[in-house]
Amino acid sequence: MDIDDLIDEVIAREGGYSDHPADRGGPTNMGITQAVARANGYTGAMQALPRGVAENIYRRLYWERPGYAFVAETSWSIAAELFDTAINMGVAAATGFLQRALNALNRNQKDYPDLKVDRSLGARTLAALRAFRALRGAAGDRVLLKAIEALQGERYIALAESRPANEVFLYGWLANRIGSGEMQ
Fold this sequence. Notes:
By secondary structure, the protein is mainly alpha-helical. It is about 65% helix and about 0% strand. It has helices at about 5-15, 35-40, 50-65, 70-75, 75-90, 90-105, 125-160, 165-175; strands at about 30, 30-35. A hairpin with a 2-residue loop joins strand 1 (about 30) and strand 2.
């Protein structure tokens, strides 16, 4: 599996054009909101968003720019989860979940120092991930993935609790986003 496969899976899951009245993202196609499309130079109708434009946006904004390819060098499953979470919650949230999970799993800094949860992927976060992986191996990926997804699930529930209109999306978020690491 590679980033092209992840993008294909996201586009298949997100589907085509939608403009749900409860969705603050407004008109969306293949999971790309109109605001994101416009910010990335697309000026056409959202119903006609070319697949290639969506693919480029996914690759650039949610894989290359946040540096998740560097995570993939250590753990493909964690990189894939961060990519998927970033698409739905934003890069800062996804990276913050990774940092929080790594901090909680470092055995009171016995394995590596706590990270500043700045929600940005940098050398210290990558070093902590490598240290975690060196200690815990591939089995650690499954535990780290569960921790990231637990944080993600809690945020989805909090969104539904704070804005009842989001309840219409909660089932789908939990069904399609939590446990998505299992597809890798």
